Amino acid sequence: MEGFVKVPGGRLWYEVKGGDSKGIPLLTIHGGPGVPHNYLETLAMLENERPVVFYDQLGCGKSDRPSDKSLWRIERFVEEIELLRSELGYSEIHLLGQSWGTILACEFALKYPETVKSMVLSGPAMSISRFEGDARRLMKTLSVRSIEAISRAEISGDFTQIDYQEAVSEFYGKFVCRMEPWPECMNEAVAGMGEDVYNYMYGPSEFTVTGILKGYDCSSHLGEINAPVLLTCGEYDEATPETTAFYREKFPNAIMKVFEESSHEHHLEKPFEYIEEVRQFLSRTD
User: Fold this and answer.
1) How far apart are CA 267 and CA 41, in angstroms?
2) 37 labelled catalytic
C-alpha cells in the first residue's frame, strides 16, 4: 500500500509493507536531511511480522519539493511524522531512525511519548556538535591530497571543485558506506536526494557543517525518554562507537550494538545481522 499525506508545505509520499501483519508497526525515518527512504528498504525483511512504513520527508524522493526554506525546521519534520501516524491509524508504533532520522525519532518521542513503543537509533546524531567533531577527527585520517583540498574549499567557500568532491568520496567510502560498489538502493537514494534541504540544514558535506543544524544538541533531554532504545553503529561509523556509548548512558533504558567491519550504513553492510538484532529487540518490546 502506498499513498500521499497532506502536510504543511505539500504532499508526503509513504509506503506500507506487510500491512496485514499483526505486530506493532515499525515506522522508519530516513537520514539526510534530504536523503530519501530507498537505502532503508532492507528493513522490509520484517514485513512478515509487522507493518513496515517507509516515507520520504518533504523535499526529497517521491514527496513534494517546495522551495520555501521556512519549512526546513525540525518541528515541522516531527509534525509530518505525527500526521502520517494519524493517517495510518496506528495508536502505537516502533520508530527506527537512521542518522538525521535519529534526531526526528527522539524529538517525536519527547513530544508524543504515548505513541512510541520503542526506538531503534542507527548511526545516531542527536548532537550535531559531537557528530561534527567526530567527522572532523575522521577527516584528518584521509589522504594528504584530500585534507589539502578540504582546507582550500573551506577557506574559499567554494565546494564545487572536483578535488573537494573526491575528498568527500574518500570520506564516504571509509566512514559512510564501505561497500564496493554501492548497492543500488544507495544509488537510488542519492539520485532522489533533496540537495537544497541538505545544504540548507547541514552543509556541503558530512564534515563541513554550515547549515541551521550546526550546534544542535538534544542529548540533555534523552533522559526524559522512557521507551526502550536500541542504539546501533558500525566499527568505522562516522557516528562513532564512543559517541553512541555516550548516548546510551543518557537514556534510562537503552542497549547498544556495534557491527564489526562496517560503517554508517551498517544495516546494508551487515544486513542479516542487523535485521536479526532489530527483530529480537522489537519482539522483546512488543
Assistant:
1) 10
2) no
